[in-house]
């Protein structure tokens, strides 16, 4: 019988493998959500480096300590702005093993409104 962690790992690898098949030259927008914070990175898998990152832990965003949809939306808007500064418009959204609802959906919608396409 699989526990919650095993199911999470299966979902995570299923999402990652699908992204690898479609990868091409697009960058990957990776999300990590903890119980208190949310962070996102813009990763270039070809060169193996992170171009931009945003987190709810950044004081500049003004959401430190807030665990809600508003904080996720601000992080999404920040990563969209930083991606555009690097000249990136199209990315793959790597949600990891997290389900696409709530904070992840708010972050994705804000990033789309900021100009990212995925």
From TrEMBL:
Homology family: Belongs to the universal ribosomal protein uL18 family.
Description of how the protein assembles with itself and partners: Part of the 50S ribosomal subunit; part of the 5S rRNA/L5/L18/L25 subcomplex. Contacts the 5S and 23S rRNAs.
Name by which UniProt lists this protein: Large ribosomal subunit protein uL18
Entries under InterPro entries matching the protein: Ribosomal_L18, Ribosomal_uL18_bac-type, Ribosomal_uL18_bac/plant/anim
Signal peptide start and end residues: none
Keyword tags: Ribonucleoprotein, Ribosomal protein, RNA-binding, rRNA-binding
Role: This is one of the proteins that bind and probably mediate the attachment of the 5S RNA into the large ribosomal subunit, where it forms part of the central protuberance.
Top-rank taxon: Bacteria
Native species: Paralimibaculum aggregatum
């Amino acid at each position: 019988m699989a526990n919650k962690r095993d199911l999470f790992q299966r979902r995570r690898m299923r999402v990652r493998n699908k992204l690898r098949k479609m990868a091409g030259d697009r960058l990957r927008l990776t999300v990590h959500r903890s119980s208190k914070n949310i962070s996102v990175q813009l990763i270039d898998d070809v060169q193996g480096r992170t171009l931009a990152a945003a987190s709810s832990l950044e004081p500049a965003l003004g959401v430190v300590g807030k665990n809600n949809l508003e904080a996720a939306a601000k992080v999404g808007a920040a990563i969209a702005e930083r991606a555009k500064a690097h000249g990136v418009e199209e990315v793959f959204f790597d949600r990891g093993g997290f389900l696409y609802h709530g904070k992840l959906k708010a972050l994705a919608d804000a990033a789309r409104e900021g100009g990212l396409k995925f």
